[in-house]
Amino acid sequence: MNVNEEENDNGVDRGQERERFRERERERERIRRRGRGRGRRGGRGRGRGRGRERALEGGSEQTRIKINLRSTKTRSCKSFALENSNLKSKFNQKTTIAHRQLRDLLSCPKPFQSTIESSSSPLYFPFNESIYSLDQRTLDCKSIKNCEFGITTVSVMKNLICAGSADGNVMIKDLQRENFLIKKAFGAGIINSVTITNDLPLSDYSTHPTLIVSSNDKMVRIVKVRNARLSVVKKIRFPKPINHSSVSPNGNIFLAVGDTKEAILCDPRNGYKLISRIKAMKDSSFATDWNPLTSTQFAIGSQEGAALIFDIRKLNNALAKIKSTQNAKKERAIRNVKFSSNHGLLLIAEHRNRVNLLDTRNYRDIQTIQLDPNDGDLNISGACFGPNSEFVYISTTQKIIKIPLDVRKRRLFSCGSFK
Protein backbone atom coordinates (compact mmCIF):
# COMPACT_ATOMS: atom_id res chain seq x y z
CA MET A 1 0.00 0.00 0.00
CA ASN A 2 1.21 3.53 -0.75
CA VAL A 3 2.31 5.32 2.41
CA ASN A 4 0.17 8.34 1.58
CA GLU A 5 -2.89 6.10 1.45
CA GLU A 6 -2.13 4.25 4.71
CA GLU A 7 -4.98 4.27 7.24
CA ASN A 8 -5.17 3.11 10.88
CA ASP A 9 -7.92 1.04 12.40
CA ASN A 10 -10.02 4.14 13.16
CA GLY A 11 -10.00 5.24 9.49
CA VAL A 12 -7.51 8.09 10.07
CA ASP A 13 -5.09 8.90 7.24
CA ARG A 14 -1.66 8.27 8.81
CA GLY A 15 0.19 10.26 6.12
CA GLN A 16 -1.87 13.35 6.86
CA GLU A 17 -1.31 12.87 10.58
CA ARG A 18 2.48 12.69 10.11
CA GLU A 19 2.39 15.80 7.91
CA ARG A 20 0.47 17.72 10.58
CA PHE A 21 3.04 16.56 13.17
CA ARG A 22 5.93 17.77 11.02
CA GLU A 23 4.21 21.16 10.53
CA ARG A 24 3.79 21.53 14.31
CA GLU A 25 7.47 20.72 14.81
CA ARG A 26 8.50 23.28 12.20
CA GLU A 27 6.34 25.93 13.93
CA ARG A 28 7.93 25.13 17.30
CA GLU A 29 11.38 25.51 15.73
CA ARG A 30 10.45 28.92 14.29
CA ILE A 31 9.26 30.05 17.72
CA ARG A 32 12.51 28.84 19.35
CA ARG A 33 14.58 30.73 16.76
CA ARG A 34 12.64 33.96 17.36
CA GLY A 35 13.21 33.53 21.09
CA ARG A 36 16.96 33.08 20.63
CA GLY A 37 17.06 36.22 18.41
CA ARG A 38 15.35 38.30 21.10
CA GLY A 39 17.77 36.93 23.68
CA ARG A 40 20.78 37.97 21.65
CA ARG A 41 19.38 41.49 21.15
CA GLY A 42 18.61 41.74 24.85
CA GLY A 43 22.17 40.65 25.66
CA ARG A 44 23.56 43.48 23.58
CA GLY A 45 21.32 45.91 25.42
CA ARG A 46 22.42 44.61 28.82
CA GLY A 47 26.08 44.93 27.84
CA ARG A 48 25.72 48.40 26.38
CA GLY A 49 27.41 50.07 29.33
CA ARG A 50 30.61 48.08 28.76
CA GLY A 51 30.45 48.89 25.04
CA ARG A 52 30.24 52.58 25.82
CA GLU A 53 33.27 52.39 28.07
CA ARG A 54 35.26 50.80 25.27
CA ALA A 55 33.93 53.37 22.79
CA LEU A 56 35.81 56.18 24.57
CA GLU A 57 39.04 54.35 23.81
CA GLY A 58 38.48 52.60 20.50
CA GLY A 59 34.95 53.25 19.25
CA SER A 60 31.68 51.30 19.23
CA GLU A 61 29.26 51.33 16.34
CA GLN A 62 26.34 50.77 18.73
CA THR A 63 26.71 54.28 20.18
CA ARG A 64 27.46 56.15 16.96
CA ILE A 65 24.80 58.39 15.47
CA LYS A 66 25.39 59.46 11.89
CA ILE A 67 23.61 62.63 10.86
CA ASN A 68 22.82 63.26 7.23
CA LEU A 69 21.67 66.85 6.96
CA ARG A 70 21.57 69.77 4.61
CA SER A 71 22.47 73.33 5.42
CA THR A 72 19.62 75.28 6.99
CA LYS A 73 18.00 77.84 4.70
CA THR A 74 18.40 81.11 6.57
CA ARG A 75 16.98 84.57 5.94
CA SER A 76 18.77 87.78 6.76
CA CYS A 77 17.13 90.15 9.22
CA LYS A 78 16.69 93.76 8.21
CA SER A 79 19.52 95.67 9.84
CA PHE A 80 21.51 98.88 9.64
CA ALA A 81 24.84 98.96 7.84
CA LEU A 82 27.07 98.30 10.80
CA GLU A 83 30.14 100.02 9.41
CA ASN A 84 28.13 103.28 9.31
CA SER A 85 26.58 102.92 12.74
CA ASN A 86 27.60 105.66 15.17
CA LEU A 87 26.66 103.46 18.09
CA LYS A 88 29.38 100.92 17.45
CA SER A 89 32.30 101.46 19.83
CA LYS A 90 35.91 100.59 19.13
CA PHE A 91 38.58 100.13 21.77
CA ASN A 92 42.05 100.54 20.28
CA GLN A 93 43.41 97.57 22.15
CA LYS A 94 45.27 94.76 20.39
CA THR A 95 44.95 91.11 21.39
CA THR A 96 47.31 88.21 20.75
CA ILE A 97 46.50 84.83 19.17
CA ALA A 98 48.96 82.17 20.34
CA HIS A 99 47.45 79.35 18.25
CA ARG A 100 45.78 80.07 14.92
CA GLN A 101 42.91 77.63 15.54
CA LEU A 102 42.12 78.55 19.16
CA ARG A 103 40.07 81.76 19.21
CA ASP A 104 38.18 81.81 22.52
CA LEU A 105 40.22 84.62 24.06
CA LEU A 106 37.68 87.27 25.09
CA SER A 107 35.46 87.26 28.16
CA CYS A 108 32.98 89.76 29.59
CA PRO A 109 31.56 88.11 32.73
CA LYS A 110 29.20 89.54 35.28
CA PRO A 111 31.34 91.79 37.51
CA PHE A 112 32.03 90.44 40.98
CA GLN A 113 32.19 94.00 42.35
CA SER A 114 28.72 95.18 43.30
CA THR A 115 29.64 98.76 42.40
CA ILE A 116 30.02 97.96 38.69
CA GLU A 117 27.00 97.75 36.41
CA SER A 118 26.73 94.74 34.12
CA SER A 119 26.77 96.98 31.05
CA SER A 120 30.22 98.22 32.14
CA SER A 121 31.71 94.87 33.10
CA PRO A 122 35.48 94.68 32.45
CA LEU A 123 36.74 92.86 29.37
CA TYR A 124 39.45 90.22 29.81
CA PHE A 125 41.83 89.16 27.03
CA PRO A 126 45.51 88.23 26.39
CA PHE A 127 48.15 90.44 24.89
CA ASN A 128 51.61 88.95 24.42
CA GLU A 129 52.10 86.74 27.50
CA SER A 130 49.89 88.71 29.90
CA ILE A 131 46.19 88.81 30.71
CA TYR A 132 44.68 92.30 30.64
CA SER A 133 41.44 93.86 31.83
CA LEU A 134 39.81 96.80 30.08
CA ASP A 135 37.54 99.12 32.06
CA GLN A 136 34.75 100.14 29.68
CA ARG A 137 33.95 103.29 31.64
CA THR A 138 37.40 104.79 32.05
CA LEU A 139 39.08 102.94 29.13
CA ASP A 140 41.85 102.08 31.58
CA CYS A 141 43.68 98.93 30.45
CA LYS A 142 45.89 97.13 32.96
CA SER A 143 47.82 93.90 33.20
CA ILE A 144 46.40 91.40 35.67
CA LYS A 145 49.21 88.88 35.46
CA ASN A 146 52.18 88.06 33.27
CA CYS A 147 51.71 84.34 32.68
CA GLU A 148 55.15 83.92 31.12
CA PHE A 149 53.69 81.70 28.40
CA GLY A 150 51.76 82.05 25.16
CA ILE A 151 48.07 82.10 26.13
CA THR A 152 45.84 79.72 24.14
CA THR A 153 42.61 80.03 26.15
CA VAL A 154 41.04 82.33 28.75
CA SER A 155 38.11 81.64 31.07
CA VAL A 156 36.59 83.98 33.66
CA MET A 157 33.85 83.28 36.19
CA LYS A 158 32.95 85.51 39.11
CA ASN A 159 36.26 86.48 40.71
CA LEU A 160 38.44 83.78 39.11
CA ILE A 161 40.39 84.02 35.87
CA CYS A 162 42.16 81.07 34.28
CA ALA A 163 44.55 80.78 31.32
CA GLY A 164 46.08 77.84 29.47
CA SER A 165 49.23 77.61 27.38
CA ALA A 166 50.73 75.81 24.41
CA ASP A 167 53.16 73.93 26.67
CA GLY A 168 50.71 72.37 29.13
CA ASN A 169 50.65 75.09 31.81
CA VAL A 170 47.53 76.38 33.55
CA MET A 171 47.41 79.57 35.61
CA ILE A 172 44.49 80.59 37.83
CA LYS A 173 44.19 83.84 39.78
CA ASP A 174 41.66 85.25 42.22
CA LEU A 175 40.81 88.85 41.25
CA GLN A 176 39.73 89.66 44.80
CA ARG A 177 42.80 88.28 46.55
CA GLU A 178 46.03 89.76 45.26
CA ASN A 179 48.22 86.93 46.57
CA PHE A 180 46.03 84.06 45.34
CA LEU A 181 47.82 82.63 42.33
CA ILE A 182 48.24 79.02 41.19
CA LYS A 183 50.38 77.83 38.32
CA LYS A 184 50.57 74.15 37.40
CA ALA A 185 52.26 72.22 34.58
CA PHE A 186 50.14 69.29 33.42
CA GLY A 187 52.60 68.06 30.79
CA ALA A 188 49.66 67.74 28.44
CA GLY A 189 50.91 69.43 25.30
CA ILE A 190 48.67 72.29 24.15
CA ILE A 191 45.91 73.34 26.55
CA ASN A 192 43.12 73.85 24.02
CA SER A 193 40.41 75.07 26.41
CA VAL A 194 39.78 75.66 30.09
CA THR A 195 36.31 76.22 31.50
CA ILE A 196 35.50 77.33 35.05
CA THR A 197 32.17 75.82 36.05
CA ASN A 198 29.90 74.92 38.91
CA ASP A 199 27.51 72.88 36.74
CA LEU A 200 29.21 69.51 37.18
CA PRO A 201 27.74 67.10 39.78
CA LEU A 202 29.17 67.59 43.25
CA SER A 203 30.57 71.00 42.25
CA ASP A 204 30.42 73.70 44.90
CA TYR A 205 31.77 76.94 43.54
CA SER A 206 31.66 78.70 46.90
CA THR A 207 34.32 76.38 48.31
CA HIS A 208 35.90 74.38 45.48
CA PRO A 209 35.61 75.75 41.94
CA THR A 210 35.93 73.18 39.13
CA LEU A 211 38.02 73.45 35.96
CA ILE A 212 37.47 71.44 32.79
CA VAL A 213 40.85 71.26 31.05
CA SER A 214 40.93 69.92 27.46
CA SER A 215 44.31 69.20 25.94
CA ASN A 216 46.24 67.72 23.05
CA ASP A 217 47.25 64.59 24.97
CA LYS A 218 43.80 63.06 24.22
CA MET A 219 42.58 63.80 27.71
CA VAL A 220 40.13 65.97 29.62
CA ARG A 221 40.95 66.65 33.25
CA ILE A 222 38.39 67.60 35.88
CA VAL A 223 40.31 69.77 38.33
CA LYS A 224 39.32 71.14 41.73
CA VAL A 225 40.78 74.33 43.21
CA ARG A 226 41.47 73.49 46.83
CA ASN A 227 43.52 75.50 49.30
CA ALA A 228 45.54 77.26 46.62
CA ARG A 229 46.23 73.93 44.88
CA LEU A 230 44.91 72.30 41.71
CA SER A 231 43.84 68.70 42.31
CA VAL A 232 42.95 66.41 39.39
CA VAL A 233 39.88 64.43 40.50
CA LYS A 234 39.10 62.76 37.16
CA LYS A 235 40.90 61.98 33.91
CA ILE A 236 38.84 61.12 30.84
CA ARG A 237 40.78 59.53 27.98
CA PHE A 238 39.71 59.92 24.36
CA PRO A 239 40.92 58.44 21.05
CA LYS A 240 41.92 61.88 19.67
CA PRO A 241 43.07 65.26 21.04
CA ILE A 242 40.19 67.24 22.56
CA ASN A 243 39.88 70.88 21.49
CA HIS A 244 36.90 71.98 23.55
CA SER A 245 34.52 70.57 26.14
CA SER A 246 31.57 71.88 28.15
CA VAL A 247 28.79 70.68 30.42
CA SER A 248 25.04 71.30 30.20
CA PRO A 249 23.63 73.86 32.68
CA ASN A 250 21.80 71.11 34.58
CA GLY A 251 24.99 69.05 34.86
CA ASN A 252 23.55 65.98 33.13
CA ILE A 253 25.56 65.92 29.89
CA PHE A 254 29.26 66.41 29.18
CA LEU A 255 30.17 67.38 25.59
CA ALA A 256 33.61 67.11 23.96
CA VAL A 257 34.91 67.77 20.43
CA GLY A 258 38.38 67.53 18.96
CA ASP A 259 40.51 66.30 16.08
CA THR A 260 37.76 64.00 14.87
CA LYS A 261 34.54 64.26 12.88
CA GLU A 262 32.49 63.24 15.91
CA ALA A 263 31.05 64.96 18.97
CA ILE A 264 31.16 62.86 22.13
CA LEU A 265 28.46 62.98 24.82
CA CYS A 266 29.12 61.49 28.27
CA ASP A 267 27.23 61.16 31.56
CA PRO A 268 29.18 62.95 34.33
CA ARG A 269 26.84 61.48 36.96
CA ASN A 270 27.90 57.95 36.03
CA GLY A 271 31.66 58.02 35.74
CA TYR A 272 31.60 59.89 32.40
CA LYS A 273 30.33 56.83 30.56
CA LEU A 274 29.69 57.37 26.88
CA ILE A 275 26.13 58.23 25.84
CA SER A 276 26.52 58.89 22.11
CA ARG A 277 29.00 59.74 19.40
CA ILE A 278 27.48 62.10 16.85
CA LYS A 279 29.07 61.86 13.43
CA ALA A 280 27.94 65.03 11.73
CA MET A 281 31.06 67.09 10.99
CA LYS A 282 33.40 66.78 8.02
CA ASP A 283 36.44 68.08 9.90
CA SER A 284 37.75 68.84 13.40
CA SER A 285 35.80 71.07 15.79
CA PHE A 286 37.05 73.80 18.13
CA ALA A 287 34.03 75.24 19.96
CA THR A 288 30.99 74.11 21.95
CA ASP A 289 28.33 75.82 24.05
CA TRP A 290 25.00 75.02 25.74
CA ASN A 291 21.81 77.06 25.63
CA PRO A 292 21.33 78.29 29.23
CA LEU A 293 17.60 78.77 28.62
CA THR A 294 16.92 75.09 27.83
CA SER A 295 19.80 72.90 29.14
CA THR A 296 19.04 70.54 26.23
CA GLN A 297 20.33 72.44 23.18
CA PHE A 298 24.01 72.71 22.29
CA ALA A 299 26.06 74.13 19.43
CA ILE A 300 29.32 73.01 17.81
CA GLY A 301 31.70 75.10 15.69
CA SER A 302 33.59 73.13 13.05
CA GLN A 303 36.71 73.63 10.97
CA GLU A 304 34.69 72.71 7.86
CA GLY A 305 32.92 76.07 8.11
CA ALA A 306 29.65 75.09 9.76
CA ALA A 307 27.89 75.54 13.09
CA LEU A 308 25.62 72.65 14.07
CA ILE A 309 22.89 72.88 16.70
CA PHE A 310 21.38 69.81 18.37
CA ASP A 311 18.81 68.95 21.01
CA ILE A 312 19.84 66.14 23.34
CA ARG A 313 16.30 64.72 23.20
CA LYS A 314 16.50 64.05 19.45
CA LEU A 315 20.05 63.59 18.28
CA ASN A 316 19.15 61.92 14.99
CA ASN A 317 18.10 65.25 13.49
CA ALA A 318 20.06 68.45 13.98
CA LEU A 319 18.05 71.58 14.71
CA ALA A 320 20.15 73.53 12.22
CA LYS A 321 23.36 73.59 10.22
CA ILE A 322 24.58 77.12 9.55
CA LYS A 323 27.30 77.46 6.94
CA SER A 324 30.04 80.08 6.98
CA THR A 325 29.54 83.16 4.82
CA GLN A 326 33.03 82.72 3.33
CA ASN A 327 34.33 80.21 0.82
CA ALA A 328 38.10 80.40 1.28
CA LYS A 329 39.26 77.40 3.30
CA LYS A 330 41.44 79.45 5.65
CA GLU A 331 38.63 81.91 6.44
CA ARG A 332 35.45 79.85 6.59
CA ALA A 333 36.18 77.89 9.81
CA ILE A 334 33.81 78.51 12.73
CA ARG A 335 36.05 79.30 15.70
CA ASN A 336 33.56 80.30 18.38
CA VAL A 337 29.91 79.65 19.31
CA LYS A 338 28.20 81.36 22.25
CA PHE A 339 24.55 81.36 23.39
CA SER A 340 23.20 84.53 24.98
CA SER A 341 21.83 84.46 28.50
CA ASN A 342 18.79 86.46 27.32
CA HIS A 343 16.99 87.37 24.08
CA GLY A 344 17.42 83.98 22.34
CA LEU A 345 20.58 84.44 20.24
CA LEU A 346 23.52 82.30 19.16
CA LEU A 347 26.79 84.00 18.25
CA ILE A 348 28.82 82.28 15.50
CA ALA A 349 32.30 83.72 14.93
CA GLU A 350 34.23 82.95 11.75
CA HIS A 351 38.01 82.85 11.34
CA ARG A 352 38.24 86.38 9.95
CA ASN A 353 36.14 89.51 9.42
CA ARG A 354 32.62 88.22 10.16
CA VAL A 355 30.45 87.24 13.11
CA ASN A 356 26.87 85.95 12.76
CA LEU A 357 23.91 86.19 15.12
CA LEU A 358 21.29 83.43 14.81
CA ASP A 359 17.78 83.61 16.26
CA THR A 360 17.36 80.51 18.47
CA ARG A 361 13.58 80.91 18.46
CA ASN A 362 13.41 79.51 14.94
CA TYR A 363 17.06 78.85 13.90
CA ARG A 364 16.39 80.58 10.60
CA ASP A 365 16.75 84.34 11.06
CA ILE A 366 20.38 85.39 10.93
CA GLN A 367 22.32 88.65 10.85
CA THR A 368 25.94 88.95 9.75
CA ILE A 369 28.29 91.48 11.31
CA GLN A 370 30.83 92.56 8.72
CA LEU A 371 33.83 94.11 10.43
CA ASP A 372 34.96 97.43 9.00
CA PRO A 373 36.72 96.71 5.68
CA ASN A 374 38.70 99.93 6.14
CA ASP A 375 40.56 98.17 8.94
CA GLY A 376 41.85 95.54 6.54
CA ASP A 377 41.82 91.77 7.04
CA LEU A 378 41.00 91.24 10.72
CA ASN A 379 41.74 87.97 12.53
CA ILE A 380 39.06 87.39 15.16
CA SER A 381 40.58 86.32 18.49
CA GLY A 382 37.34 86.05 20.46
CA ALA A 383 33.66 86.98 20.63
CA CYS A 384 31.11 86.99 23.42
CA PHE A 385 27.96 88.56 24.82
CA GLY A 386 27.89 90.89 27.79
CA PRO A 387 26.45 89.63 31.12
CA ASN A 388 22.85 90.63 30.24
CA SER A 389 23.27 90.01 26.50
CA GLU A 390 22.77 93.71 25.73
CA PHE A 391 26.07 93.98 23.86
CA VAL A 392 28.18 91.87 21.52
CA TYR A 393 31.95 92.09 21.92
CA ILE A 394 34.39 91.06 19.18
CA SER A 395 38.15 91.08 19.69
CA THR A 396 40.64 91.10 16.84
CA THR A 397 44.39 91.35 16.65
CA GLN A 398 43.99 95.12 16.08
CA LYS A 399 41.08 96.25 18.28
CA ILE A 400 38.03 95.29 20.33
CA ILE A 401 34.56 96.17 19.02
CA LYS A 402 31.41 96.68 21.10
CA ILE A 403 27.99 96.59 19.40
CA PRO A 404 24.67 97.19 21.21
CA LEU A 405 21.76 94.86 20.57
CA ASP A 406 18.34 96.31 19.93
CA VAL A 407 16.84 94.60 22.96
CA ARG A 408 13.47 96.32 22.61
CA LYS A 409 13.01 95.05 19.08
CA ARG A 410 14.03 91.56 20.16
CA ARG A 411 11.25 91.62 22.74
CA LEU A 412 8.55 93.12 20.55
CA PHE A 413 9.13 91.63 17.10
CA SER A 414 10.06 88.30 15.58
CA CYS A 415 13.37 89.64 14.26
CA GLY A 416 15.53 91.90 16.41
CA SER A 417 18.51 93.84 15.14
CA PHE A 418 21.30 96.11 16.20
CA LYS A 419 20.64 99.70 17.12
Automatic annotation (TrEMBL):
Residue ranges with Acidic residues bias: 1-10
Segments of skewed composition (Basic and acidic residues): 11-30
Pfam families assigned to the protein according to its UniProt record, in alphabetical order: DUF2415
SUPFAM superfamilies: WD40 repeat-like
Top-rank taxon: Eukaryota
Location of the region described as Disordered in the Swiss-Prot/TrEMBL record: 1-62
Compositional bias ranges of the Basic residues kind: 31-49
Family annotation (InterPro entries): DUF2415, WD40/YVTN_repeat-like_dom_sf, WD40_repeat_dom_sf
Residue ranges constituting the DUF2415 domain according to the UniProt record: 333-367
Protein name in UniProt: Wd repeat protein
The organism of origin for this protein: Anaeramoeba flamelloides
